[in-house]
């Protein structure tokens, strides 16, 4: 089963939920935790794996390279590129490449009449893997200066093993990287907080999941602050509240020390595990409806 954890905004406790879910299952299942927030991965902070316990694999994408000795500056490559990643200045006999705009489709090399363009690997980041007795943590780290996170997220998800219990920590927000992370999930847990900002961004995330046709439920973090509008919205939309995590100084302190809730407060392990069982039942019921 693949369960993604998402939020319409950052800072709601999405990674906290993902990490504690994985740890609550670690004694009973072979668990994969995929941190797809590749621009700022932080799930590893709760495991402190150490460099000697990690496998690191560089990730590349293909970008064009022009052999200007064979190029006649006809401009066909630039005309074909929908992303304006390649520009030909025939008057100056010059080709300008913008790798950050390149989508890696290879069309420029295909349309070049003089075979003056070839594709070369360009490193966009790395994938790091850490294994404990029952949890496999996989996370991507986007290279500084790279503007497109989606290709690295896709590569992280290639490591996914659906026969395991898979927890995906997605990036915050509702943009393309989030869609890449949550796509093909059996269920998505939306983490929110009971504030006006939390509700506004939650609504955006719910609309994305409706388009993707992914069933969802809520975890309300920092419960006890703010107002009741998130609860009213949940009831009106028929979105179940799976778990409430109270606004707690103790929990905040444990988080700041990199200690998971289920380790510091063992009674929470059952609550997270029970949430997984509830999700399994909801997914099973949804499958029966089809």
Overall mean confidence score, pLDDT: 92
Number of helices: 10
Helix share, percent: 25-40%
CATH superfamily of the largest domain: P-loop containing nucleotide triphosphate hydrolases
Oligomeric form of this entry? single chain
Element-level helix/strand string? EHEEHEEHEEHEHEHEHEHHH
Largest sheet: 9 strands, mixed
CATH topology of the largest domain: Rossmann fold
Percent of residues in β-strands: 25-35%
Query: How do the strands of the widest beta sheet line up side by side?
Result: 3-6-7-2-8-1-9-10-11
* CATH architectural arrangement of the largest domain: 3-Layer(aba) Sandwich
Q: Specify the CATH class of the largest domain.
A: Alpha Beta
Classification by helices and strands: alpha/beta
Whole-number tally of structural domains: 2
What's the end-to-end separation, in Å? 17 Å
Low-confidence stretches: none
Q: Write down the Rg.
A: 22 Å
The general outline is: elongated
Number of DSSP-assigned strands: 11
Q: What is the structure about, briefly put?
A:
The protein has 290 residues and is α/β, with parallel strands linked by helices.
SSE blueprint:
Blueprint: E1 2-6, H1 14-25, E2 31-35, E3 54-66, H2 76-80, E4 86-89, E5 94-97, H3 107-111, E6 117-131, E7 135-142, H4 150-157, E8 165-169, H5 176-182, E9 187-192, H6 196-212, E10 216-223, H7 229-237, E11 241-246, H8 249-256, H9 261-264, H10 267-289
Parallel strand pairs: 1-8, 1-9, 2-7, 2-8, 9-10, 10-11
Antiparallel strand pairs: 3-6, 4-5, 6-7
């Amino acid at each position: 089963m693949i369960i993604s954890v998402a939020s319409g905004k950052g800072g709601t406790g999405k990674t906290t939920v993902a990490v504690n879910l994985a740890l609550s299952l670690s004694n009973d299942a072979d668990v994969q935790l995929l941190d797809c927030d590749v621009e700022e991965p932080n799930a590893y902070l709760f495991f402190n794996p150490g460099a000697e316990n990690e496998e690191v694999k560089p990730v590349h994408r293909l970008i064009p390279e022009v052999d200007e000795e064979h190029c006649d500056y006809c401009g066909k490559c630039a005309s074909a590129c929908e992303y304006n990643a390649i520009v030909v200045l025939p008057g100056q006999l010059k080709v300008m490449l913008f790798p950050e705009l390149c989508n890696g489709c290879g069309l420029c090399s295909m349309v070049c009449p003089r075979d003056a363009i070839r594709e070369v690997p360009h490193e966009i980041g790395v994938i790091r893997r850490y294994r404990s007795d029952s949890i496999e943590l996989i996370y991507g780290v986007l290279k500084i200066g790279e503007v497109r996170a989606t290709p690295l997220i896709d590569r992280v998800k290639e490591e996914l093993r659906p026969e395991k219990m898979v927890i995906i920590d997605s990036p915050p927000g509702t943009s393309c990287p989030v869609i890449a992370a949550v796509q093909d999930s059996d269920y998505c847990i939306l983490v929110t907080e009971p504030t006006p900002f939390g509700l506004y961004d939650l609504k955006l995330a719910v609309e994305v999941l409706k388009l993707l046709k992914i069933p969802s439920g809520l975890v309300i973090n920092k419960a006890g602050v703010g107002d009741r509008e998130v609860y009213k919205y949940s009831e009106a939309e028929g979105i179940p509240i799976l778990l409430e995590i109270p606004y707690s100084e103790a929990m905040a302190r444990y988080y700041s020390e990199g200690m998971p809730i289920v380790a510091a407060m063992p009674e929470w392990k059952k609550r997270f595990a029970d949430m997984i069982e509830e999700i399994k039942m909801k997914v099973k019921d949804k499958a029966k409806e089809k």
